[in-house]
Amino acid sequence: MNLEAKNNQYLINGKPSAGLSVFDRGLAYGDGVFRTFLVKNGVPHHWELQYQKLTQDCLAMGLACPSNEELLSDIEALFDEGSDAVAKIIVTRGESARGYAVPADIQVNRVVTKSAPPTYPLSNQTQGVKLLLCELKLGLQAKLAGIKHLNRLENVLARMEWSDVNIADGLLLDSNDNVIECTMSNIFARFGSQLITPALDQCGVDGIARKRIIEHAKYLKLDMKIEAMKLDHLMQADEIIICNSLFGAWQVVNFNNKQWPKQDLDTQLRDMLLN
Amino acid sequence: MNLEAKNNQYLINGKPSAGLSVFDRGLAYGDGVFRTFLVKNGVPHHWELQYQKLTQDCLAMGLACPSNEELLSDIEALFDEGSDAVAKIIVTRGESARGYAVPADIQVNRVVTKSAPPTYPLSNQTQGVKLLLCELKLGLQAKLAGIKHLNRLENVLARMEWSDVNIADGLLLDSNDNVIECTMSNIFARFGSQLITPALDQCGVDGIARKRIIEHAKYLKLDMKIEAMKLDHLMQADEIIICNSLFGAWQVVNFNNKQWPKQDLDTQLRDMLLN
Fold it and tell me: Which of A11, A28, A227, A266 has its CA 20 to 30 A from that of A255?
């Protein structure tokens, strides 16, 4: 490894390639899963958790997960020690003839891409963020709930609901009007010393940042609960936090015609998540 | 055009290509739509209806639909006059940087592929077919209902529920236990002189064969109704028919522990659909 920028922006099955087969089922049906995470100075951040979740999602979808060694080799080949970047791993079921049936001898395709880290206003950290309440409501599908699969049209359509750059993310309810998540983040609400995050057994993505906050709550002397939550309950929270693996955590200070004073739980969680 | 087999199996934006960009949103999010139809002796079957539906689906998703001329040019370049084949058109939102937000200057990618026609047992036509009742239930999402979009994991997972080659398709209920469709086909049920097909306002794909049967029913002196249907109602039908643009129509003679005598509505509909 050297400190020069590497040329390749992606690898397919470990190799430079001109592109993915148009017969890949990731394109045809969204038949696959993915992960997105920081690579800091060439080192994938919280790799064990990312790989564990990838393994779980592959298992849930009946996909053969690429090995830890293959993926770490891809990351080493793509990323530089001298800078931070974002890695995305896509695992698709592979190529097949037309039709939904999966051939017995199909082999997964793995794609690893390198992107620049997202740039967000510093004020998202210092002053908090504004959320939109999305009109789109997530459909219920227990067989896909929690999995970060490639069927993300609901997120795309929800994200198309706003263009105001002052809105950091959009809150999604499900079709039963339960609070679930935001388009690119999970959500937590603090009520006194209780921290609640929505149950994701019918829809939503069970992200790594969410998992880490759930495990970390006890160190902040917060009583952690995972349960169904309605919007009117969320609105009564003392603090609302959104999180993902790239930005860490932000406090929501403006949502659904209500404002909250900036507090410091987001800073504590962000320090924990990003370091 | 000559009668020799053409070499290219696909075109991307009208050109031979080594593959699709791994940054295409069709792969990343299933952010696109598709069509599948017969090409008979080089001529796309019922092209006007296929292109009309593609245009409608693109509009519903906020995609710029490729022109009629571009797509017909792709089909002419790929398909031979001397044989029948299956065309698939995929229109994705195009390539973008990581993240759900759609850049203002994004340009759709169009992919046209050529495949061999599916081979089904002749007995599907002469004796009828067996359906499985799938365990998976379709989630509700009015904003995507009817559209043939690339988020098809529910179909994939449902199709994974059986490997018995004697099962022709799997029937899907929605999460409210309404009969909706099968994994690769739409469904009709005849009760005396009444023909009913499920409403698709909350989920399901509104296919071309379904549309044509709805319009054709009056010529068969059948009173056509599009409405919600429960499983116990379906089970009382005099005849159940499934349909798509590739196989036309088959009668269901074995489903959910009940058998039906083979009749001839499927033959009439198949003749209408495939000719």
Answer: A227
ipTM of the predicted structure?
0.95
Tell me which chain B residues have a C-beta less than 8 angstroms from the C-beta of A143.
Answer: 136, 154, 157
The 8-class DSSP code of residue A160 comes to: T
Compute the mean pLDDT over every residue in chain B, rounded to the nearest whole number.
95
Q: What is the pLDDT of residue B273?
A: 97
Other CB atoms within a 10 A radius of the CB of residue A223 amount to: 12
Nearest CA in chain A to B25: A27
E-assigned strands of B124-238?
A: 129-138, 167-174, 179-182, 186-191, 194-197, 223-226
pLDDT confidence band for B98 (50 / 70 / 90): confident
Domains of chain A: which residue ranges? 10-115, 123-274
Beta carbons of A100 and B152 less than 8 Å apart: yes
A31–B27 C-beta distance less than 8 A: no
pLDDT at res. B156: 98
Search chain A and give the residue with CA nearest B11: A22
Question: pLDDT at position A6, please?
Answer: 60
Provide CB contacts within 8 A for B15, sequence distance 6+: none
Q: Between these two residues, A82 and B170, which has the higher pLDDT value? A: B170
CATH architecture of B10-115: 2-Layer Sandwich (3.30)
A36: annotated active-site residue: yes
> What homologous superfamily is domain B123-274 in, according to CATH?
D-amino Acid Aminotransferase, subunit A, domain 2 (3.20.10.10)
Contact at CB, A141 and B160, closer than 8 angstroms: no
Q: What is the pLDDT of residues A155-169, one digit of tens each?
A: 999 999 999 999 999
> Chain A interface, mutation test: which of B105, B137, B153, B181, most A Cβ atoms within 10 Å?
B153
Considering A53, A92, A95, A181, which one is annotated as catalytic?
A181
Tokens of A114: 């390198």
Question: Sheet of A43-44: strands edge to edge?
Answer: A10-12, A109-115, A84-92, A32-40, A43-44
